[in-house]
Write a structure and sequence with these properties.
The protein has 2 domains: 58-241 and 352-373, Citrate Synthase, domain 1 (Orthogonal Bundle), CATH 1.10.580.10; 246-346, Cytochrome P450-Terp, domain 2 (Cytochrome p450-Terp, domain 2, Orthogonal Bundle). Helix content is 54%, strand content 4%. It has helices at 57-62, 66-75, 83-95, 101-109, 116-131, 141-146, 148-164, 178-187, 193-206, 213-223, 228-240, 246-255, 261-273, 292-306, 310-327, 336-346, 354-373, and strands spanning 2-4, 22-24, 41-43, 50-52, 55-56. Strands 3-4-5 form a 3-stranded antiparallel beta sheet. Strands 1-2 form a two-stranded parallel ribbon. The model has no long low-confidence stretch (mean pLDDT 88).
């Protein structure tokens, strides 16, 4: 039995084959546990290296195309290797966006002030009732192969955006990309090219990040051989929490009320002195700043400048610098949600919509990892350590 030094990040996941079973350094919350093998993505907590199917994240972000990235994650084939397969995939996910009328009616029956993630959760559950017949297999293997859920979640998020903004239901324009469809629903107009690029970039960066809480939750449900709609609802539930995708909402709640860089500096000092959590900082995987931040910071700066919102970017930079100065010596660094949230906001999203928008991107990684694992997945069943009282007399 081999021992892996997982918590130190010393184990090279690409170069060293492992023979099961293995022992690892284990921390709270299953930190350090190796729960699965995958060819979908590579994440190095020590260097910050991140790659999807061997393609570095910087290369994917340089010309972002979420649909092509989703196809790469799910099939392992890039656009040049399988142009026909990519074209079929685009058609498949785009054509799946026409929601059943009953599902649209359900969304519209809910108070538009309801948190968008709750409406999304209800909508995905309702979709499962329409997509899966009574005699379908419980694992929903056909649905995983067809991957309609990727386009359906995008369409649901667009419908939720329109409902929340008091706009009537409108299906995405035929043939438009997932990002074009969601942006058109969000802002009730045809999106600009730089907006489409920015949303594709966000979804590419959020698409997959190892067994983070939403993905691992989804994998646990998949190990029970439950169908994709149960699976996605479970993953969305974990994504909603303020320690995961919900942190993007908290970032905006904290940053938007700040009037200027001076106020931002004072707020950071007060928050840290009082022990408050500053959203957008800290990460369970990285021992360094999240490498995706470099890409997003540049994009936010450009978008803020083009939209006459440069002061918002300066406020964010002030907060980043002040928090880094105080918390980096303690091992707390900036994460993707800090500038990710700002870019969602610059694209027209109010704070509660940010986790829903993240969810669209995350569908690619969830679908890729689950569909990869289904052939040989085992039921997840870790142990717990009892620390209660000893024998007691009844």
């Amino acid at each position: 039995m081999s021992k892996l030094q997982t918590l130190s990040g010393a184990f090279d996941w690409r170069a060293e084959a492992i023979d099961w079973p293995v022992t690892t350094d284990v921390g709270p919350g299953l930190a350090g546990v190796v729960a699965a093998e995958t060819r979908v993505m590579w994440l190095d907590p020590s260097s910050g290296e991140l790659a999807y199917r061997g393609v570095p994240i910087d290369a994917l972000a340089s010309s972002p195309d979420f649909e092509a990235t989703a196809h790469l994650l799910i099939t392992g084939r890039g656009p040049e290797e399988d142009p026909g397969g990519l074209a079929n995939f685009r058609h498949q996910v785009r054509s799946s966006r026409l929601l059943p009328p009953d599902v649209v009616d359900l969304v519209r029956s809910l108070d538009p002030a309801t948190h968008p993630t709750r409406i999304l959760r209800a909508g995905v559950s309702a979709l499962g009732c329409h997509e899966l017949s009574v005699d379908d297999d419980l694992s929903g293997s056909r649905q995983w192969r067809e991957l309609r859920i990727v386009g359906q979640v995008a369409s649901l998020v667009g419908e939720i955006c329109r409902h929340r903004n008091g706009l009537g239901s409108r299906a995405p324009e035929e043939g438009c990309s997932l990002s074009e469809g969601v942006l058109a629903a969000l802002n009730d107009r045809r999106p600009e090219p730089d907006e489409i690029r920015a949303l594709d970039l966000l979804w590419v960066l959020y698409a997959a990040h190892g067994l983070d809480a939403p993905t691992f939750t989804s994998m646990v449900v998949a190990s029970c051989l439950a169908d994709p709609y149960y699976n996605i609802v479970a993953g969305l539930s974990a994504l909603r929490g303020p320690k995961t995708g919900g942190a993007s909402e908290s970032v905006l709640d904290q940053l938007l009320p700040l009037d200027n860089p001076g106020a931002a500096e004072a707020w950071v000092r007060k928050a840290i002195d009082s022990g408050e959590t500053i959203a957008g900082f800290g990460h369970r995987a990285y021992h360094m700043p999240d490498p995706r931040v470099v890409i997003l910071r540049k994009e936010v700066a450009a978008m803020a400048r083009s939209r006459g919102r440069s002061e918002l970017f300066e406020i964010a930079r002030t907060v980043e610098s002040a928090v880094t100065r105080e918390l980096a010596p303690k091992g707390v660094f900036i994460n993707v949600n800090f500038y990710g949230a700002l870019l969602f906001h610059l694209l027209g999203a109010e704070p509660p919509l940010a986790p829903c928008l993240i969810a669209v991107g995350r569908m690619a990684g969830m679908a890729a990892l689950v569909s990869e694992a289904l052939d040989n997945i085992r039921l997840y069943r870790p142990l717990s350590r009892y620390v209660g009282v000893g024998d007691r007399t009844p």
